[in-house]
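We keep the chain:
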Amino acid sequence: MLGRPIAHSLSPVLHGAAYRALDLDWMFSAIDVGVDELGPLLDSRGPEWVGFACTMPLKRAVVEVAGTASDRARAVGAGNTLLHRPDGSWAADNTDVAGIVAALRECGVSAVGSVAVLGAGGTAQAAVVALAELGLTGCSVLVRDPARTGEVLEAASRAGVEVEVGALHRPEADLVISTLPPGAADSLAGQVAADALLDVVYAPWPTRLAAAVAAHGGVVVSGALMLLHQAAEQVELMTGRPAPVEAMRAALRAKVPGCGA
């Protein structure tokens, strides 16, 4: 797992559980890496390295440094997975899209009318591509600074999703997807009356936003569930075998009780 900061990452928990369930003698650990260090690190790794999961601040750099990229990673303009190819090159992929789609579907959220995405970072880019995979053609993106929406707008354009940019205030939508960091959406908790919410935060859980939506009878999808399903997709890409999702879910719940996975 690559990123900075990285000590908090639960990916080693999920991947470790998967490899044990698959009876693979593989190791998965966290490595503190910044954007400028990513290329040299990849160049230094031999064929014994199967792949890397990547988090912030590397998600956009992943696509730039890789030799090739999947259709999803190109559509998003960001990646969270690097796979070592037989010729020694690296291929970028994005399993955040699959994680969002699978998490929503597991909770019965697959057909909605209006959608609001909070934030404009790499996960917001994945969210608009996920919406396209769910058959949606439009959404609003709510941000504090509209000048920082260029990359999410480009991702939406590539995915065929029309976006209306607005200020970060009361989101009026059937489904709200918050890609904001912990605490950043707290001020909206009393303003959201959506039918469903996906909050990418998983600790602390529930967030104030999630608790507010649940109190109004809305469906709440946790960031832990997205984390689980995106990691399962990574396991399948790295091993070529179906991911042991329930073993991974149990390991996540044991590590973070009440996380919503």
User: Anything to note?
Assistant: The two ends are 20 Å apart (CA to CA).
